[in-house]
């Protein structure tokens, strides 16, 4: 059974930082691309960042480039999202997701964790 468990979220003031973690189990982690998505109230879920199985390729939503960094530790089966210079518009539920390196869609999702940025 595949499980993705997010942690590290919370309430922070604008300009602050948070580091999200996602611990994976039940899958061959090093063969999966990992991603972070978010959903703000009243909005659709959007892609935030992804990292290839090897860690050599990363992609970001334009609005978070230069502020967020995705990374992974394959030995720990964990993916991270370092979020700096947070803005109120970053407030959302953040989801970790996994897709096989050769798949087109994300197949597994975490339960989500709330990030709130106050102005």
Short structural description:
With 119 residues, this protein is an all-beta fold. It has strands at 3-7, 10-13, 18-25, 32-39, 46-51, 58-60, 68-73, 78-83, 92-100, 108-109, 113-118.
Written overview of the protein:
The protein has strands spanning 3-7, 10-13, 18-25, 32-39, 46-51, 58-60, 68-73, 78-83, 92-100, 108-109, 113-118. It is an all-beta fold and 119 residues long. It starts with a strand and ends with a strand. The model has no long low-confidence stretch (mean pLDDT 96).
Total count of helical runs of at least 4 residues:
0
What's the gyration radius in Å? Answer: 13 Å
Strand composition percent: over 45%
Q: How many individual β-strands?
A: 11
How far apart lie the N and C ends? Answer: 40 Å
Give me the strand/helix succession: EEEEEEEEEEE
Q: Give the low-pLDDT segments.
A: none
* Shape type: globular
Q: How helical, in percent, are the residues?
A: under 10%
Q: What is the quaternary state of this protein?
A: single chain
Structural class call reads: mainly beta
């Amino acid at each position: 059974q595949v499980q993705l468990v997010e942690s590290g979220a919370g309430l922070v003031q604008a300009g602050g930082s948070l580091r999200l973690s996602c611990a994976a189990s039940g899958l061959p982690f090093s063969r999966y691309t990992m991603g972070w998505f978010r959903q703000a109230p009243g909005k659709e879920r959007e892609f935030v960042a992804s990292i290839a199985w090897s860690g050599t390729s990363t992609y970001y939503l334009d609005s978070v480039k230069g502020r967020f960094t995705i990374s992974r530790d394959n030995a720990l089966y964990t993916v991270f999202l370092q979020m700096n210079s947070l803005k109120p518009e970053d407030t959302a539920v953040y989801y970790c997701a996994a897709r096989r390196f050769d798949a087109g869609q994300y197949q597994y999702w975490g339960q989500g964790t709330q990030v709130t940025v106050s102005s």
